[in-house]
Write a structure and sequence with these properties.
Helix content: 25-40%
Largest sheet: 4 strands, mixed
Shape: globular
Strand order of the largest sheet: 1-2-4-3
Number of strands: 10
Strand content: 25-35%
Order of helices and strands: EEEHEHEEEEEHEH
Length: about 190
């Protein structure tokens, strides 16, 4: 079973996350930010990774610590579940439409963390979610999971649709990348990632 479980407690956030890579995409999500819960639930459902995410953050300040720290811990749990990364396809790419919006994500589970983010939102908030934190979440997730991640919100006019398409594109790219390969070996000429 490819599983990861991480707890992280600071003065700003208390977080418990569990992931099951070979799950059914079931999600138990509670971050205190409704739209963020919606995005994480979509990430779980569309990647096929079952997730338990409980975050209690200092929302009286704002949502930054809650969102970024959740990305950190989710990345750490994924990295733990992947172990030495042997036996995975490693790469994944997906285009996801949502009504008038289209998002693209491509990733490499390479142990060389990087984020390229191309996209912007018209409004500062979607519900109680600060839209500029979408990029911060994916940066924290990618760097702590050891993933090279490119996300492009290609076009769209509805911020909800644009953000959701981006999360779902990452989910489908991740699903392809964690799929077990035919040889069971590390997909690298170096022999290790």
């Amino acid at each position: 079973m490819r599983t990861g479980a991480v707890d992280r407690n600071t003065r700003e956030t208390q977080i418990h996350i569990e992931v099951l890579l070979d799950g059914k995409g079931t999600a138990q999500i509670d971050t205190g930010i409704g739209f963020f819960d919606h995005m994480l639930t979509a990430l779980s459902a569309h990647s096929g990774i079952s997730m338990v995410i409980h975050t209690k953050g200092d929302l009286y300040v704002d949502s930054h610590h809650t969102v970024e720290d959740t990305g950190i811990v989710l990345g750490e749990a994924l990295k733990q579940a992947l172990g030495d990364k042997s036996g995975i396809c490693r790469y994944g790419t997906a285009y996801i439409p949502m009504d008038e919006s289209l998002a693209f994500a491509s990733l490499d589970i390479s142990n060389r963390p990087f984020l390229v983010w191309n996209g912007s939102f018209a409004a500062p908030m979607i519900g109680a979610f600060d839209t500029n934190l979408a990029e911060e979440f994916f940066r924290a997730f990618a760097f702590h999971a050891g993933i090279t991640l490119h996300v492009n919100m290609l076009y769209g006019s509805n911020d909800h649709h644009k953000c959701e398409a981006a999360f779902k594109a990452v989910a489908h790219a991740l699903k392809a990348a964690i799929t077990e390969n035919e040889t069971g070996t590390v997909l690298s000429t170096k022999g290790a990632l």
